[in-house]
Amino acid sequence: MAYALAADLVMLVHFVFLLYVALGGFLAWRRPGLIVPHIAAAAWGLLSATVGMDCPLTAWEDAARRHAGEQGIPHGFIGTYLTGVIYPADRLVEAQLLVASVVLASWIGFAVRLRRRRPARKA
Where would you find the membrane-spanning parts of this chain (predicted)? Predict the structure, then answer.
């Protein structure tokens, strides 16, 4: 029971992390200090998507599920919970490009807002 609960908590944290990767740049519009951790999270997401770096959260959830007597998550977090559920399995690249576009849009908006907050310099 404890392992199943731990697995569910790790799954929840993983979903929140993915939401932060996709939308954290918009949070930085209000809280500029969040931009640095968001850049780090987005870089991790980029590395994971492009070179297949495994996320430790996936390994922790998989181990906890196996200890609980469950199957585990043999297809990884994205393959288990998102691909074929949130978007069609044959649209993975399009989904990744959409998330990347949202991240870039949030960073552009962050830069514009930051520039507007700073007073103009006098010559």
Answer: 9-29, 35-60, 95-114
